[in-house]
Each structure stands twice: as structure tokens, then as C-alpha cells.
Amino acid sequence: MIKLSNISKTFNTGKPNEVKAVQNLNLEIAPQDYVVIVGANGSGKSTLLNLIAGSLLPSAGTIEIDGQLVTRLKDFERSKWIARVFQNPLSGTAPDLTILDNFRLAALRTQSKDLLIGTTAQFKADVKDKVALLGMGLENKLDQDMGTLSGGQRQALTLMMSVMDECKILLLDEPTAALDPRSADLVMKTADRLIKDFKLTAILITHNLKDAHYYGNRLILMREGQIFKDYSCESKLSLTQNDLFSWFS
Amino acid sequence: MEFYLTALLQGLCFAGIAVGIYISMKIFNIPDITTDGSYTLGGMLTGTLLTHAFPLYISAAAALLAGAIAGAITGVIHTKLKIHALLAGILVSTALYSINIIVAGRSNLPLINLSSVFSIITFTTDFNLNSLLILLLVVGAVVAITGYLLKTDFGIAMRATGNSESMIRALGVNTDRMKIIGLAMANALTALSGFLMTQQQGYADISMGIGIVIIGLGSVIIGDTLISRFNVKSVWKILLLVVAGAVVFQLLLAVTLSLGVNANLLKLVTAVLVLLFVSLPRLTLSRQND
Questions:
Q1: How does the protein's chain sit in the membrane according to the entry (chain B) (predicted)?
Q2: Residue B174 is nearest to which of A76, A84, A109, comparing CB atoms?
């Protein structure tokens, strides 16, 4: 589903503060894989995710999504495959728009936003059903501004928004970093359920090694802009939590 | 009474600027100084076309289009060349000063005994009352069209662009393009104000736009105070309150002048009034927080 070939990303090229965030990295992710990426700060995890999303363009190498070369496509052009949940709950939603308006935009992620009023009663009913699945009681607050909700509620809604339109790839960049343990658990469980139900290919970046151990069918450890360890299906199952902790000690 | 009616008419003429500034400042978070130039552009173009006996609808369309182009240029400079929006706007409005003189061929255009938007339809023989009705129609149309636009899927994407850029890009919207369209819209509306004002006051002048952005700003701030005070959510009502802000602002200026303030101090009074509107909510808020 995703294929990165010889990808490098260098910031501030030629300056004293040059950073080689990702170096000559090769990665192939099969459809419906759920890849978890761990690594120390500065190991290039977020850069890698931004390269896949198109928020950053690579200094060298090629990126393919779904068999199509997308190396030079910008983030808004890759949205027809990719939905994202950001580390900051504020980044994934528009706080001054209502929940309903946020969902309306999400429902048009792969389509053009036309000069028609799309927030119809029918649409509202659909969103209500979707939001009710979260079991947070938000389905009766659709006309409320997104900004009035807590970080956990917003992350959960962002997840729901990602499956409002056809979605193939879900990128999760430390989605629970800003949340309390209970909200974090709810968000992770919701993500896991959506990834299975909608047969998504997913990439999760996390610092929570318990989550990294529990979720996903492939685990990657990044170090200095490269893939340091890569465990798929069976080999991941044989890992213990202590193995993961030992990588960071 | 006549005095206040004129202020009311002026306020309605400025409704376009107010809605334009609302779009650039409140929706896109862009302080757009192009306003000074595009307002004059709308006025000078209207003056020129009317003195050359072009029909009114062509003048109106030309003013709207010229304003839109000016705004789009600011947008392109801001988004594609990554120049700060303030500087981009100042550059375009500075350049427009020369363009405006070239367009008109001179710096002042009186429109005496020419047909105008206010004489083309006659509801009543009272000229001022007739003007009021026509302005209400035009402003009503502006609010209706802009309000509808902001409620469409495109409009929601527009509002999200200024609100959460990372989100709306991830949802497939080209934010650069959106900002260019937004600034084009805002300045088209500003030029519409220039079109109306030129005919209302009977002349176009190269200096008519100096500091006009402050009037838009003041109107939006008055409107915004009302919007947050009454917690207004509906897009239509928000736009109506912004227009009301423009009218209230002109009435306040009229009151100040009628108290005997020297007309030369008009811009000073304007600046002080805007400063008051901006600071009053904060002053009262900080007292509540103590």
C-alpha cells in the first residue's frame, strides 16, 4: 500500500545546523498492515510520517501509495488516500466550527467542496449515528463548537471523521500524547476498532511502549533517521514488553 | 436629522468594506491593507466609467472584478512568495495609488449630473430616502450572497482554513488557493463600497481610501462585540451585525462631529474610537477577572 524507496530528508542543508532527519530509508507496508513506530525523540518518526502524508517533501527518494508515484504530491493532494490524527487535538479539528461542520468537511476529504449546502438534515442524521458509536454522548451536541470539547473527545471525533469518506491509510502521530490515561485508552481502542472494521492500513507513532506492544501487527524501531529494528507478525508476537523497554534503557 | 441620515447612508456604503474585512480578518486571520487601495480603485474606476457614459452594470462589474484582482494579487504575493500578509497588502495598495491615477487620468473626478445607482430606480422622490432603500437592497444582497456562500461546503472549508490549517489541508483543501479566493472576495466587496460611495458623495478622489481599512476594522470590532455579547452563531446574523457595526460606527462619528469637533480631526477621532472599541471589552474583562 505504501512504498518508500531510498528516502532522505535533510533540514537546513549546508548550514551549521544541518539535520539529517531521515536517511536512505526503505520501507514497504502491505495493505491492512497496522505498523507501530517507536523511537527516541529526534529519531525521525514524525518526519517519516510527514513525508508519507506529504506535509514534507523528501530531499531524495520516491514514495508510492497504492501503486501510484506520489513523491511530489502535496498533503492536500494525498488526502484521497490518507486520513490523519495529529498529536495536538487542536490540529485535527477546527475549534470555531461546529462538530457537524467539521464532519461535513471530513465527509468530503476525497471530493471537492462545492457551492452547495451539504449539512442537510439527512447528513446530520448520518453523523449522529456515527458519533453515537463512540458512546460519549456527543451525538446530541452536533451544533456545539468543536473548541468546547476536551482533547480526548476531539481526538475520538477526529478518528471518526477519518472514516466519513473513503479512507485507505490512517496516520496516527502520537494521538494520545496529550490525553489522560482513560481518554488515551478510549482513543486507542476506537482506532483499533476502526482500523479493523474499515480494513485500513495504519501507521501509529507512539512513546507508550505498552500500546506499541499491544496494538498493531508490525513494530518498527527507528534510530538516527533509519529503521533499526523491524518485527512483523509472528516475530512481533514473540516480543515481550520488557524487550521494548530494554531498547530505550 | 438629515445629518444622521447621511451618516446612515455612509455606513451602508461601508457595509462592503466591513464584510470584506470580516472575511479577511475574522475568517482568514489576515490583516489586509489592500483595502485602502482597492476601495479607491473601485471608486476611481466607477468615476471614470460613468463619466465616459458606460452603463451602470458595467461599472459595477468592473469595480468588483478590479477589486477581486487586487485582492488576488495580495493573496498570491502572500501565499506563493511567502511574504507577510501585512507587507503584501501594503505593497499592493501602494502600487494601486499609481494605478488609480492612471485609470482616472487625474486625481479627482466629480460626477455632476450623471446618472447613478441612486437615480436609476425611483421608489420615492425624496433623494436621500430613495438612496437608503437602494442601499438596503444592495447591502441585503451582499449579506444574502455572502451568507449563503459561507454556509456551503466551500464556505465551511473557507472558515476552516483560517481556523485550523493543518486540519483542512489533511482534508484535501489547497489552503493557498483558498486564501487567494478569500482575499479576492474581500477586496471585491471593498471595491463595491468604493463604487457605492463615489456615487453617494458625487465624486471620486485619489485620497478617498486613506485609512479606510480602519473604518472596516472598527465596524468589524463593533459587530464582533455584539456577536460575542449575544453569542450569535448564525452566519446571516453575524454578517448583519457586522453591517450594523459599520452603520453604528458612522453614526458615532456623526455624533462626535455634531458635538463641535473640528472636521480636520476626523481621522484622529476615527482612530481613537477604534482604539476604544478594541480596548473596552478587554478593560471590562480584566476588571471581571480581578
A1: Multi-pass membrane protein
A2: A76
Domain at B129, CATH number: 1.10.3470
What one-character-per-residue DSSP string does B30-97 give?
---THHHHHHHHHHHHHHHHHHTT--HHHHHHHHHHHHHHHHHHHHHHHHHS---HHHHHHHHHHHHH
Mean pLDDT of B137-157: 96
Query: Using a CB-CB distance cutoff of 8 angstroms, which residues of chain A are in contact with residue B168?
Result: 94, 105
The CATH number of whichever domain residue A78 belongs to comes to: 3.40.50.300
Sequence-distant (≥ 6) Cβ neighbours of residue B191 within 8 angstroms: B16, B38, B39, B41, B42, B45, B63, B64, B66, B67, B68, B70
Who among B152, B167, B233 is closest to A91 (CB)? B167
Q: A18 lies in which domain range?
A: 2-247
Strands, DSSP E only, in chain B?
A: 108-110, 203-205
**Which parts of chain A fold into alpha helices (H)?**
45-53, 75-78, 99-107, 121-132, 151-162, 181-197, 209-214, 233-237, 241-247
Give the pLDDT of residue B288.
Answer: 58
CA nearest neighbour of B74 among B60, B58, B88: B88
Cβ(B43)–Cβ(B70) below 8 Å = no
* Residue A203 grid coordinates: 501507521
> What is the domain count for chain A?
1
Residues of the domain holding B191:
2-289
B22 CA to chain A: closest CA distance, Å?
A: 15
Burial B75-98, CB ≥16 within 10 A → b, else e: bbbbbeeebebeebbbbbbeebbe
Q: How much is the pLDDT for B238?
A: 95
Q: Are B249 and B273 in contact (CB under 8 A)?
A: yes
End-to-end CA distance of chain A: 33
Counting the structural domains of chain B, the total is 1
Mutate to test the interface with B, among A57, A76, A117 (most CBs of B within 10 A): A76
Residues in chain A whose beta carbon is closer than 8 A to a beta carbon of chain B? 53, 55, 74-77, 79-80, 82-84, 86, 90-98, 101-102, 104-106, 108-111, 113-119, 143
Cα distances from B72 to residues A72, A189, B63, B217, in angstroms, run 26, 46, 14, 20
d(CA A26, CA A116): 43
Q: Which residues of B touch A (CB under 8 A)?
A: 148-149, 151-154, 156-157, 159-160, 163-164, 166-175, 233
ipTM (interface predicted TM): 0.90
Considering only the beta carbons, identify the residue of B149, B168, B233 that sits closest to A105. B168
CB contact under 8 A, B171 and A105: yes
Q: Which residue has the higher pLDDT, B286 or B66?
A: B66
Neighbours of B191 (CB within 10 A): 34
